[in-house]
Structures are given as structure tokens and as C-alpha cells.
Amino acid sequence: MSVSTRIALVTGANKGIGLEIARQLAQAGVFVIVGARDPGRADEALKSLLSQGLAAQSVLLDLNNSSGILAAAETIRAEHGRLDILVNNAGIVDAKDGPPTSSSPDAVRRILDTNFVGTLAVTQAMLPLLRQSAAARIVNLSSSLGSLTLNGDPASPYYAARLIGYNASKAALNMLTVQLAEELKETAIVVNSVSPGYVKTDLTGHNGFMTAEEGAKLPVKYALLGDDAVSGKFVEPNGETPW
Ligand SMILES: NC(=O)c1ccc[n+]([C@@H]2O[C@H](COP(=O)([O-])OP(=O)(O)OC[C@H]3O[C@@H](n4cnc5c(N)ncnc54)[C@H](OP(=O)(O)O)[C@@H]3O)[C@@H](O)[C@H]2O)c1
């Protein structure tokens, strides 16, 4: 691998939008590290990339396993010494989530623990490696459902989707984007929240308007932002999203 080859970690890259992000980054010449929590699923995803002649490896990464996250960061440090792109893609929904009057608090806790706390833990663990990059990019896979403004706007198509756990987890993730972008503004690390659109994956029960391939396009664009990169933004395929 050339020293100028960018190195990316994509969490939850064994399927859905994450696998497509991994594929498209690799097709753009990036060396991709497929993060996945299950060894078999990690292997299968890696094989599918390698069989297409793409440059990739996999690392075990479970957002709910703190020591495993640190071990993954250590593996990447030992093998590459830096990270240029972190795509925080892994995320969950829960069938027991719902409106605030009836959602299961345990389900809400699980969702927040994975989508927000787990993502925060991965980001913290990878930051020393991202600081070694000349121009690092962090992409947080958010959702328009995480927009406080749209949740309170009866004219918004997202208004009726009352999932207190999922929506709050993405609002919290957006807070991570805002605060981290501010904290890192004097560094070469750029952080953005990207909503991929409504994408047909396991997470949506294969409902949606876009394929995973289409849904990966905007996250990939933000992972590959050049020297004029913006930081601390919240975007969706139609443009900027209100927080
Ligand atoms: N699909 C949409 O319309 C849509 C819209 C807006 C935002 N998003 C966001 O986009 C991201 C990807 O979603 P998707 O639609 O591609 O969903 P998906 O097909 O269900 O894929 C989710 C990925 O996250 C992984 N994951 C879940 N919990 C994990 C954990 N604790 N540790 C590590 N990996 C974990 C899954 O691994 P396993 O296979 O092991 O479960 C899987 O690889 C999510 O953050 C989602 O919230 C999706």
C-alpha cells in the first residue's frame, strides 16, 4: 500500500449502508477496514470486497464492548499508525421503541447505548489515530429523524415517526457532531452528521426509497471531502437539515 493511500474504518460494515460505504470508499482507492461485531459476518463482508479486487481488511468491533473497541484501535495503530476516515455507521432500531408515552425504557436505553454512547466510545478510541492524519474526516450516520426542528414541525414528512429512542439517539449523535467539530476546530479533523435518506435495509424492514448503494453516496462524499471541507454540518441528500 502506498503511504498516500487513505485508511478508513467503517463501523457496522458487514451489511446494509455500511457495506456499501466500504465498497464505494475502496472503489475510490481508500484502504477500508470493515468493522463488524461478528467474526463470520466480518469475514463474509471482507470476502465480498476482496473478490472485487478491492483493498480491505476487517476488525472485530462491537459498539457495546469497550475493551474490544480499544483492542480494535490498537490493532489499527499497530498495522497502520493512523486513520484518515472514520465512518460511524453502526446503529440499531428496536421493535419496542415507539412514542414517548409507550416506548419501552429498556429499548430506549439499548438504542442510546449503541447509537450514541457506543459511537462516542469508538470515536474517542480512534481519535489518537485520526490526529495522525493530515486531513481526517469523521462521518456520523445520523437521520433526519434526529432533527429536533423536524420532529416539532407538523408539515415535515418525519413528524409522524415518533420513535423516542431512535430519534433521541440521532439527536444525541448530532450533539456529538456539533461539540466535537467545535472542540477539534483547530485540528485537521472534520466532523459531520450525514443522513443517508430512507434506505431499503434490514433496519427499515426493506422499506424505503433508496437502495443501499444510493444511500451510501452522501456519507462517502463527506468521507472524501477535500481541503475546503466544512465541519459541524448536518446534511441529507436534499441539502442541509435543520438541527
Ligand atoms: N436505512 C435507513 O433508511 C437509514 C436512515 C437514516 C439513518 N440510517 C442509519 O444508517 C446506519 C446504517 O443503517 P442500515 O440501514 O444500513 O442498517 P442495517 O442494515 O441494520 O445495518 C446496521 C449495521 O450496524 C451493525 N451494528 C448494530 N449494532 C452494532 C453494535 N453493537 N456493534 C457493532 N455493529 C453493530 C450491524 O451489525 P450486525 O449485522 O452484526 O447486526 C450492521 O452491520 C445506522 O446508523 C442507521 O441508523 C439508516
Automatic annotation (TrEMBL):
Oxidoreductase among keywords: yes
Protein source organism: Paraburkholderia sejongensis
InterPro entries from the UniProt entry: CBR1-like (IPR045313), NAD(P)-bd_dom_sf (IPR036291), Sc_DH/Rdtase_CS (IPR020904), SDR_fam (IPR002347)
Regions crossing the membrane: none
Pfam family for this entry, one: adh_short
Family, per entry: Belongs to the short-chain dehydrogenases/reductases (SDR) family.
Keywords from the named record: NADP, Oxidoreductase
PROSITE patterns: ADH_SHORT (PS00061)
Identification of the protein by name: SDR family oxidoreductase
